Amino acid sequence: MKRKPAYLRPLPRESASAETSPPESDSNAVYSSAQALPNLKSEVSNTAPNRNWRTELKLCLTIIKPITWVPVVWSFWCGAVMAGGLSWTLEGLTKLLVGLILAGPLLCGMAQAINDWFDREVDAVNEPWRPIASGQLSVVRIYQVIGTLGFFGLMAAYYLGPVVMLLAFFGIFMAHNYSAPPLRLKRFTWIGPLSSASSYILVPWLAAASVFGGITWRAMAISGLYTLGGIGIMILNDFKSIRGDYQLKLPSVPVVYGTRTASRLACAIMDLSQLTVGGLLLMEGRPVAVAILALLLFPQLLLQHRFIEKPLSRAIWYNARGQNFLVLGMLVAAWVTF
Q1: Residue 118 has what pLDDT?
Q2: How many CB atoms lie within 10 A of CB 68?
């Protein structure tokens, strides 16, 4: 008998020795949320309800997810450091500030709002309290947020130069097509994480390099390797939405390969990218930098061992701890190679 695809099989649970099964009430809540999906569109109103501006602002900030700006801003900072042209003049600091705002609040914030809009069915299962999934924000307000951030993002990119403008258009294209039909890149098991990692690491890194010194082969190699490592980070992010992905048959890596295999794949990808960066630096005669990267990799390995034991419940736990060492390694690699 032909085996069913993974996303058509029941959601795998980690072994009893690893962790206990989720309570029955959680399963009922997921089922109830899934049953409500057909009525979701009707719950998103076309006009904003009558509420004060503080509440409206808080809801808007929720959909642009400020916490997600950090890795994009960090990648831009690494690209600026690596380029070697960052100066403490008024012009240099202005360009740095504009670039950081462009990478984080403007384009990343816009991308998050777009993703929330097109992922409202998934959020209705995983996070039904979110502003769009719960109908707290009107369609008009959502479009206003996306349009405003996109407009000022393009203005900021224009100020920073034609290369940044081109990369900004590419970033907007990727942000839209990651979640929006007909492409909806996230429905492809590996292309989705790759496109997301490129937007978070490669694009801002190269944008900063073009502003502060020019895009070199070294900048493309280091940022490209860390982008491949970013695929592992994106796989970890898919763990928190695994229930909704199962319900809606979205073939993310945890859904297709199972939580245990997906956790091993994510860790292997992250580790391999850092080891390759270390090998590249060793070939260039930078043993001190390699030693620092090795020291930063060691605690990740310890944390990964614990994560793999209970991947479903410890994905967010690992992201909050292990990724700190990886991003510090990014800055080390950028600092020693400018």
Answers
A1: 92
A2: 17
Q: Pick the closest to residue 259 from 22, 29, 34, 31 (CA basis).
A: 22
Taking only Cα atoms into account, the Rg of the chain, rounded to an integer number of angstroms, comes to: 21
What's at 272, amino acid-wise? L
> Would you give the distance in Å from CA 58 to the centre of its chain?
21
Phi/psi for 224 (5° steps) reads: -65, -40
pLDDT per residue as tens digits for the range 182-201: 889 989 999 999 999 999 99
Best CA proximity match to 14, nearest among 226, 260, 315: 260
CB proximity list for 154: less than 8 A, separation 6 or greater: 165, 168, 169
pLDDT 10s digits, 68-102: 999 999 999 999 999 998 888 999 999 999 999 99
Helices (H), 128-161: 139-160
Closest CA to 323 of 193, 206, 236, 202: 236
Q: State how far Cα 265 lies from the chain centre.
A: 17
- Which segments of 153-216 are extended strands (E)? none
- Cα distances from 71 to residues 154, 187, 270, 280, 324, in angstroms, run 20, 23, 15, 23, 10
pTM to 2 decimal places = 0.84
pLDDT category at 37 given cuts 50, 70, 90 is: very low
Give, as one character, the DSSP assignment of residue 199.
I
pLDDT tens digits, residue range 192-235?
A: 999 999 999 999 999 999 999 999 999 999 999 999 999 999 99
Q: What b-and-e string marks burial along 255-272, b requiring 16 or more CB atoms within 10 Å of the CB? A: bbbbbbebbbbbbebbbe
Could you say which DSSP state residue 88 is in? S
User: DSSP class of residue 106?
Assistant: I
Q: What are the percentages of helix, strand and coil residues in the chain, rounded to 5?
A: 80, 0, 20
